[in-house]
Design goal:
This is DUF5123 domain-containing protein. The protein is mostly beta strands. It has four helices and 47 strands. Strand 46 and strand 47 (about 555-560) form a beta hairpin.
């Protein structure tokens, strides 16, 4: 074993201390360099002037528009290290918005620092207009965010504005219409065009007085014409109407308008009008008159018995053609049927237009037994209600000839408990109705406990055409819809049912349908599940009357959205899609 001396041990100990000192110094230098490096790097990487707010989350910006405003809902990005926005600035324009590109048509919102949270309402926009939008977040302590564009530069559109008031019946006439809108509204002019000449747009520049009053009378219109009328602020549409002018008082040898204080259309009055018409025509056997009845008036129809003062039928004088015409300017006038209308004699035409006919004791409208010849008997744009027995009946043995019965754009309600709606019941075959045309009509609760809709007792016709009409709660007591007598040996030469709807029948009889030598040719016609008659060619639907119509029990046959896709029935009830 080798023993170390004291001298060698001392040398070794000094050497170890020297190594430790060197390592310690190196560690201190390394730590110093490391600390210096961290401090210098922080000063070099961060520039406070470049710090800014986060922009909005573009995917969560939604816009709900009204006529002159837009409600904007949005969501901001949040972070613990970045302050929240204090307010927001919105810019909208009808022109596209681009970064760094000047746009003189920009509308700014929020520069007053009032738009501080979602949602915000941007008001004062134009109706029916397309807008682009951008938004930025703002703060008094941090730089504003960058612009965020609605749907990456897409637009939204405001709803169409309507400052026009509704046109009431009292505003609408055959040749003019009284227009009104919000008084003092910012408007410049009105345009209008006839639907038959839509490219020929006429312009009316409004005066300051008309603007302030919010009123203008548009004259020079054509009767029975549809017009589109638009009001503008410069090129911005602020309202639009579509109106149809009523018919003009029909031409005749003599026109007579009832005074507002007349309450009875009497035999005496009819005879006086007939004498005036004869004089104008210069013909005592073929002459015409139009009797204008004021809008909203209520007049009774009856004559007076000379012997006892009782009420009698009113007879149209022989040779006279006549139109009973409801004048424009309000609701259709009402003729109360205290007694029947007697059409004895010869007449080229007898017509009722734009009037309401209401039962007041007559029981019938026409219950003709005396001989007559009428080329055409017409109801157009009428409402007929509550006749207890029959609407149009020919009876008795005297010869009676009706060339054509036309029912157009009319509504018939609660009629005929005793005989058919049209009832040709002739002894010895002495009377006939040749043609029936029904177009654009509604029949509600007809012959519920009575006879058939059309009855011709073993007597042929030339044609029956029923189109664009709605039937509801018709034909009860196991009666036919159309009946020409047993054995079906009689009927029309041609028979057409087109674009009709048959709703709820008054009973569940399925074997009383159409009895005629000529079957009906049926097109585009439909029945509800509660119409039990079987008319060949009428299509089944999956809807009951209450499912198809808005409120049939109360006479509203508007077709509900999402039901019948085809256009059928009385056009006044067509569904209006949103």
């Amino acid at each position: 074993m080798v023993m170390q001396t004291n001298s060698s041990l001392i040398k070794k100990e000094k050497k170890m201390k020297s190594i430790k000192n060197i390592l310690g110094t190196a560690s201190m230098i390394a730590l110093t360099l490391s600390a210096t490096s961290c401090t210098d790097g922080n000063d070099w990487d961060v520039d406070g002037s470049l710090s800014r707010l986060f922009g909005l989350n573009g995917d969560k910006i939604t816009v709900e528009t009204a006529e002159t405003s837009a409600t904007v809902t949005f969501s901001a990005f949040t972070s613990k290290t970045v302050p929240s926005p204090e307010y927001y600035v919105f810019e909208v324009s009808k022109d596209s918005l681009y970064e760094g590109v000047e746009n003189a048509n920009i509308i700014k919102f929020g520069e007053d620092k009032t738009l501080t949270s979602s949602p915000v309402v941007l008001s004062g926009l134009d109706g029916d207009s397309k807008y682009y939008m951008r938004v930025k977040a703002m703060s008094s302590t941090v730089n504003e965010s960058k612009w965020v564009y609605y749907k990456d530069g897409s637009s939204f559109k405001t709803k169409a504005e309507q400052i026009f008031n509704n046109v009431e019946a009292t505003d609408l006439f055959e040749d003019h219409v009284n227009l009104s809108w919000t008084p003092g509204a910012d408007v410049t002019h009105i345009t209008y065009a006839n639907a038959n000449d839509a490219e020929n747009i006429q312009t009316i520049n409004l005066t300051d007085e008309e603007k302030a009053a919010g009123k203008y009378t548009l004259a020079g219109l054509q009767p029975t014409s549809t017009y589109t009328i638009t009001i503008y602020k410069n090129d911005v549409k602020r309202g639009q109407l579509q109106i149809t002018t009523p018919a003009a008082m029909p031409a005749a040898d003599y026109k007579y308008s009832l005074a507002s204080d007349v309450t009875v259309i009497s035999q005496t009055l009819i005879d006086e009008i007939a004498e005036q018409a004869k004089a104008k025509a210069g013909n005592a056997t073929n002459y015409s008159a139009t009797i204008g009845i004021p809008a909203g008036a209520k007049v009774a129809l009856y004559g007076t018995n000379d012997s006892d003062g009782g009420k009698t039928n009113v007879t149209i004088p022989d040779g006279m053609s006549v139109t009973f015409f409801g004048l424009a300017g309000g609701d259709a006038p009402t003729i109360n049927l205290d007694k029947n209308l007697d059409i004895a004699g010869s007449h080229a035409f007898i017509k009722f237009q734009n009037v309401k006919l209401e039962e007041n004791g007559a029981g019938y409208f026409i219950n003709q037994s005396k001989a007559c010849t009428v080329s055409e008997f017409t109801l157009e744009n009428c409402e007929v209600s509550n006749l207890k027995t029959s609407f149009f009946r020919l009876q008795g043995s005297d010869a009676k000839s009706i060339g054509k019965l036309t029912l157009k754009n009319s509504i018939f309600t609660n009629l005929c408990a005793g005989y058919g709606f049209i009832h040709i019941d002739q002894k010895n075959g002495a009377g006939h109705l040749d043609n029936v045309e029904i177009d654009g009509c509604t029949f509600n609760s007809i012959c519920v406990t009575g006879k058939v809709f059309i009855y011709s007792n073993n007597k042929d016709m030339q044609d029956i055409t029923i189109k664009n009409s709605t039937f509801y709660n018709c034909n009860g007591n196991g009666q036919f819809f159309v009946d020409f007598g047993k054995d079906a040996k009689f009927g029309p030469n041609t028979f057409t049912i087109e674009s009709c709807i048959f709703g709820k029948s008054a009973d569940e009889k399925t074997d009383k349908n159409i009895r005629s030598k000529t079957p009906a040719t049926v097109a585009n016609s439909f029945r509800t599940t509660d119409f039990f008659k079987v008319i060949k060619g009428v299509n089944d639907t999956e809807f009951s009357s209450t499912q198809l119509f808005k409120d049939p029990a109360n006479g509203d046959f508007t077709i509900k959205a999402g039901t019948l896709k085809e256009k059928a029935g009385d056009p006044r009830w067509y569904v209006v899609e949103d």
